[in-house]
Design brief:
The structure holds 2 protein chains of 2 kinds.
Chain A: H1 6-9, H2 27-43, H3 49-63, H4 68-71, H5 79-92, E1 103-105, E2 108-110, H6 112-138, H7 141-152, H8 161-192, H9 204-235, H10 254-276
Antiparallel strand pairs in A: 1-2
Helix pairs in contact in A: 2-6, 2-7, 2-10, 3-6, 5-6, 7-8, 8-9
Chain B: H1 2-22, E1 26-27, E2 34-35, H2 37-48, H3 50-65, H4 78-82, H5 86-103, H6 111-141, H7 145-152, H8 157-183
Helix pairs in contact in B: 1-2, 1-3, 2-3, 2-5, 2-6, 2-8, 3-5, 5-6, 6-7, 6-8
The chains are: A mainly alpha, B mainly alpha.
Chain lengths: 286, 188
Amino acid sequence: MNDFEILHNLSMGQYKPGNTVIHNLNPALKIMALLVLMGMVFFSPLIPQMPLLFFLLVIFARLARLKLRFLLKGVRPVLPFLLLIALIQMFLIPRFYQTEALLHFYSWELHPEDLLFTGKLFGRFFCLFLLFTLFTSVTTVSEISHGAEILFRPLGRKKGLSHDLSLVITITFRFIPILAMEAEHITKAQASRGGSFGTWKMGLIKKMRLYIPLVIPLFVAALERAEILVEAMEARCYEPGKERSRLAEYPWTVGDTRALVFLILGFLLLLLSRFLISIGGSNVRF
Amino acid sequence: MTKEIIRKTVLTALFTSLIAASSFFTIPVGPVPVVLTTMFVVLSGMLGGPQIGLSSVVTYLIMGIIGLPVFAGGTAGLAKIMGPTGGFLLGYLLAAPAAGWMYNSKKDRSKPLEIPLAVITSLLAGALIYLPGIPWLKQSLSMDWPTVLKAGLYPFIPGFVIKSMAAAALGCSMKNRFRDFLSTGKED
């Protein structure tokens, strides 16, 4: 029956309601902070900046009153994939530095470069994963939509471009659970008519043929819902491109300014430490 | 005019939802999982036209960039686009409008001409995803050509062909419904 619980199996980040400092930040600032912290993760060498950055993210999680176990619960399925990437790197990619081998194993050698690459790969992944789950845990979809509209406003030569993009994002995220629920209903209906969903004993072509009776009703149902939505929007006097008011307002507060200053200082500090600290000489930079 | 714009907006959101929702499902067949995202990208162009197809893919990529977990396996972020598989995501930008332009769902055609055109459109548009994807993967992981083809192209060919056939079948089946949906607003 686990195959039919499509809505439960969605690996979407889950929003945790709260009234903390992190929750109440301006949504545009949260998106900007996400992008800046993402850049910081990619700009960080492994030692010592990466652990400090992870610790910083842990502090943010504490401020938002979120448990670390909750934030990192989705890590486990991805670890074998990371290990595969590390192995591909060790065995297939030529090395850039001539260092003493730590270990010999037939024709293959283990170098410090391999260990540092693997550590950097896992470090980056854990930091990014924690960052994304933290972001989706403290930000609602409506806030993301509003934040995207604010951030994309400079791009719009036409007045309604950022608003249209914001509207599409909002409708998209209303549609996704609806589509998941619809897919669940269709799957159960077809299974009750004898469809063999969830059986893994057949070949690829037969399995693909099984998804046709799922996808076509899904398209039809989605199109019907789209029709209903269009008529409802027209009935409520929605006009594209017209100036509109907003139900939820997100004013910029002193806390937002403080968080922005903290973010800029953090990035500048990382930039400075990147040039001041180097390990093993200037030509070795991991 | 107003109703037509609303219909285009809602249809763009609908295709974006389908592309994003398909990222959560994989069909575990053998060593290489088959992801339905590419099929829905091609379908968004075939059924919605080049403009709506491109808008859907752009919205999908923007949502992924700003942190919403809509990429394959529920991942997200600019890291995905800058990473080894980023070229495939950028290939979506080529595939959706190309499918819409080649198929041209507003045109009426006889059945013996419709089906081969849908099949050719699906195959060519799907191949456009790999056109930037493979060189990007090669550059990102510093591989040579035989290795990158062995890792990034050959295992995915069977799934790609079958997904193209499915997209062609769905495109033929659903074409009239989506065309009627878009043209309803013009009658007012």
